[in-house]
Design goal:
About 0% of the residues lie in helices and about 45% in strands. With about 110 residues, it is mainly β.
């Protein structure tokens, strides 16, 4: 597959660019009863994700492309099938290559509507 299925990209679940840490990335989310969320990201260009922290844990798996996570200043290259767990309050950022798709699960409310 080269893209997420259409049912995962409902406009009602689109993540506003004002809530993203990376330019030229497209994201959609789903929320659990407990307030946790999952996001599905597609990066269309080589991009840098600015450094940030969350007040909750984050888990990410790379579906396609390559994402280089920068966790507390250490680079970790993630290819399709690779996953990473980032504990809450950890400084993180990264670099995407064009065509990268990832799925992230957040242990809290990352996207606010």
């Amino acid at each position: 597959m080269n893209d997420f299925p259409e049912f995962m990209k409902n406009e009602k679940n689109h993540i506003s660019s004002s809530q993203q840490n990376t330019e030229d990335i497209d994201g959609y989310y789903f929320e659990g009863e407990d307030g946790s969320q999952m996001a599905f990201w597609t990066c269309y260009s080589d991009r840098v994700s600015k450094q940030h922290k969350h007040e909750f844990d984050e888990y990410t798996v790379v579906v396609s492309g390559r994402y280089t996570a920068i966790i507390d200043g250490k680079e970790i290259v993630l290819n399709p099938g690779d996953e990473i767990f980032v504990p809450k309050a950890t400084l993180q950022g990264g670099q995407y290559i064009a065509g990268t798709r990832t799925i992230s699960a957040f242990g809290g409310k990352r996207i606010h509507k």
